[in-house]
Automatic annotation (TrEMBL):
Name this protein carries in UniProt: DUF6049 family protein
Pfam families: DUF6049
Annotated signal peptide: 1-20
Annotated keywords: Membrane, Signal, Transmembrane, Transmembrane helix
Organism: Rhodococcus sovatensis
């Protein structure tokens, strides 16, 4: 940035020297419906696009040059040539309220009252052509136009471009806006008396520095393929290899980490003020992914087919180097864990699953500590959306966390400065405290990077289309927002500032360096003091619950929540049935952890675009298919043909097979006809990748062929595998045999009685006729 400033200063063009002052103020000219020299189809369309490329200085200090120089590019985006293109610089009054950090950037250009002279930058531009130019203007001047900057503050600046489209008249065709932080006003070289007080440099007031905490997020989109359980020897699978580029030198995550490494060196931060104010906020999902990448990994050809064809990943070395650097840095710096996969806390609360809440909010600190070998700051949950509704607050409360970190415009403070009850519902547990980050600063930082966004908590009047601003302009807005609270007039109460960029942040290039450099400069100058993040987490709860203001769930995906809830119950059932084997390193927890984490990735907040919504559905499809495959791996093998019992009480012999790498406890479910009684054999353990013969006591009261369905279930009744149908036949005669035997017995008794009756009477039995003795 410094080198760039010298380049710009070397090519300064004196304002007005290359251009002519318009006889009619071009800002008042616009196309009206009565303009007949411009075709109706193009009337009012945009012809030029103005983009800010560099600003020098990015932050004005007492030792800066007494003028601002901007390098910019103007491009013909219309359908015809534009002639006589000229640009001027304007400024508005210093921002005096946090919301003005955004609203001043959408004001009409007439509100920018300090106006420079127009400077010609191009004779004409054909369609698609562009030209780069440099324009400069004094901060203050007693002898001509200036930006009117005579005291420290944050000032909105504007570049206004005019031109004459072919077949049309001269008009204002575009403008570009950005914020300029001024921490000190340099000398005024135009003053008649350079020794006069009003010509001297004006430093800022450092009597009441702002206590500053900076959260530095290290997070990414979910990359692990869904539906694949934990393993000790198999490579993990990723849906793409983009993370390899982000971890490699020049990648986004490399630059975010490198900026901290550089800014906290002994040379730049000799007293450790910046390091004390910083806390690395790490997504455990990123750490899990990077840690697995260091052992080698694969990239699936189709994310919708996570177990299908795959190729070797390319980022193993980059992952190892990045993780090693992070481990080194965190040994001497604050670290805290983000919610797993930046999960949406209100969606998590809507699902209402205790095991998911534990994985999302309690386990992350353990994951970070185990992988990095540190003791992270606990007890505080940073909401990825900056907001917290009733269900989200209940989820945080149930996790045991005492404090939620939210945007300052997402809670309603009471008269005592504490926080109040939940809007539209029952109050949250009194042990849930709220600490806040500055919403205006976070909104500005969300616009920094190659994927600018506007957070959900940003009020409607502070929203505008960020794509019309250049990356440089958005960075200037971020720097201005950070400096604002240090430069704002003091109100007598203790001043604090928590800087919280988006958790998934696309800042890169020199942007992280510029942001940390601004914070470091504020700390060195005395405008700010360091406030460790641990102090926020250690603060005693206020004793009052949280009230949310702006939680919007209009886009709530109830179907996705239902799928997550159902899938979590199946995972709970599976884990509850797996066998803890002290001889195996693959525990039930390690085996099922990726399956549960998949659900959190599906309801994460890293990207709320339409593509991300589709990715969430694909992830859920993969999760369900993967768990279906696991359940199918435990089943009963059906014997072929008809199973013939030797007697009516002969046992059935079945074989149960387990293809999983961990042992599993199962129960046998039997669906038999009334003629067959099967005894419950209770729970039984199947060995990992093995089988077991099951002896099933049974009694059959019929000699017919009977159809019986056998299946295995988890201990709580979830079916495993497919049911096996067995045909059973008994060699016993059953009821017919009993009737025949009874009838024969009765007949025998009758015949014996008849014979005895004849003997008692002394009469020969007629049945003996022909058989008398001689």
């Amino acid at each position: 940035m410094t080198a760039l400033m010298f380049v710009l200063l070397a090519s300064i063009l004196v304002p007005g020297s290359a251009g002519a002052q318009e006889t009619q103020d071009p800002t008042e000219i616009s196309y009206q419906s009565g303009d007949t020299d411009l075709p109706e189809t193009t009337r009012g369309s945009q012809f030029l696009r103005l983009s800010v490329d560099a600003v020098a200085p990015g932050t004005v200090t007492t030792t800066s040059e007494p003028f601002v120089t901007v390098r910019a590019t103007v491009t013909n985006t219309g359908d015809r040539r534009v002639d006589d293109i000229s640009v001027r610089m304007q400024s508005a009054d210093a921002v005096d309220a946090p919301e003005q950090l955004r609203t001043t950037l959408s004001l009409d250009q007439q509100e920018y009252l300090n106006v420079g002279e127009f400077q010609n930058v191009a004779v004409n531009l054909e369609q698609g052509a562009s030209t780069q130019f440099v324009i400069s203007m004094p901060l203050r001047s007693t002898q001509g136009p200036s930006l009117g900057i005579d005291k420290p503050g944050v000032y909105p600046l504007l570049l206004n471009v005019n031109g004459t489209p072919e077949y049309g008249g001269t008009a204002r065709l575009d403008d570009a806006r950005f914020l300029l932080p001024v921490t000190g006003v340099p000398r005024d070289p135009t003053a008649i008396d350079p020794t006069a007080p009003d010509a001297q440099p004006l430093p800022p007031n450092t009597d009441d520095p702002v206590a500053t905490t900076v959260l530095w997020p290290l997070a990414d989109r979910p990359r692990l393929a869904a539906g694949i359980p934990g393993s000790l020897d198999e490579k993990v699978r990723l849906v793409d290899d983009e993370l390899a580029g982000e971890l490699a030198p020049g990648g986004r995550l490399d630059e975010l980490l490198q900026a901290v490494e550089f800014a906290t060196t002994a040379e730049l931060d000799p007293e450790g003020r910046l390091a004390e104010s910083l806390c690395l906020a790490v997504d455990p999902d990123l750490l899990v992914t990077v840690s697995n990448m260091t052992r080698g990994y694969s990239i699936v050809d189709d994310p919708a087919d996570p177990t299908g064809p795959a190729r070797e990943g390319t980022g193993r070395e980059a992952a190892s180097n990045w993780l090693s650097r992070l481990e080194t840095l965190t040994q001497s710096m604050c670290v805290t864990a983000l919610p797993f996969a930046q999960v949406d806390l209100d969606t998590l609360g809507n699902v209402g699953d205790a095991s998911l809440v534990s994985t999302a909010l309690e386990s992350p600190a353990d994951v970070v500590d185990a992988i990095l070998g540190v003791s992270s700051v606990r007890g505080i949950v940073w909401s990825p959306t900056g907001q917290l509704g009733e269900t989200g607050a209940a989820a945080v409360r149930s996790s045991g966390a005492q404090t939620a970190l939210l945007a300052d415009n997402s809670i309603a403070p009471t008269a005592s400065g504490a926080v109040a009850r939940v809007v539209g519902g029952s109050s949250v547990d009194a042990e849930l405290n709220a600490t806040v980050f500055d919403a205006a600063t976070s909104t500005a930082l969300a616009g920094v990077g190659d994927n600018p966004t506007t957070p959900a908590f940003t009020p409607e009047d502070q929203r505008y289309d960020l794509t019309s601003d250049s990356r440089t302009a958005r960075l200037q807005d971020g720097l201005g927002a950070i400096a604002y609270h240090a430069l704002a007039p003091t109100g007598g109460s203790p001043r604090t500032l928590t800087v919280a960029p988006p958790q998934y942040w696309t800042a890169g290039g020199d942007e992280p360096d510029a942001i940390l450099g601004t914070v470091s400069s504020l700390l060195r100058s005395g405008l700010a003091t360091a406030r460790p993040f641990a102090e926020l987490a250690a603060a005693e709860p206020t004793g009052l619950p949280v009230e949310t203001r702006t939680v919007d769930q209009d886009d709530r995906d109830v179907n996705l929540e239902d799928r997550v809830r159902a899938q979590s119950k199946r995972i709970d059932a599976l884990r509850g049935s797996l066998v803890e084997d002290p001889q195996s390193a693959l525990t039930p927890r390690l085996y099922t952890a990726p399956l549960r984490e998949d659900l959190l990735r599906a309801i994460g907040t890293a990207d709320r675009s339409d593509d991300a919504s589709n990715a969430a559905r694909v992830r859920m499809d993969g999760s369900e298919a993967g768990l279906d495959g696991i359940f199918r791996s435990v089943t009963v093998l059906a014997p072929g043909g008809v199973y013939t019992l030797a007697s009516e009480q002969s046992p059935l012999l079945l074989v149960a097979r387990n293809d999983l790498p961990v042992g599993v406890n199962v129960r046998l479910r039997v669906d038999a006809p009334p003629e067959m009684t099967v005894s419950d054999v209770g729970a039984m353990a199947l060995p990992a990748r093995g089988s077991r013969t099951i002896t099933v006591p049974a009694q059959v009261d019929d000699s017919r062929n009977l159809t019986v369905d056998f299946s295995l279930t988890t201990l709580d009744g979830q079916q495993l595998g497919e049911a096996s149908t067995v045909s059973v036949r008994s060699n016993a005669y059953g009821q017919a045999l009993a009737i025949i035997t009874a009838s024969a017995g009765v007949l025998l008794l009758l015949l014996a009685g008849r014979r005895l009756l004849h003997r008692f009477r002394g009469q020969p039995d007629p049945a003996d006729e022909g058989y008398e003795r001689p």
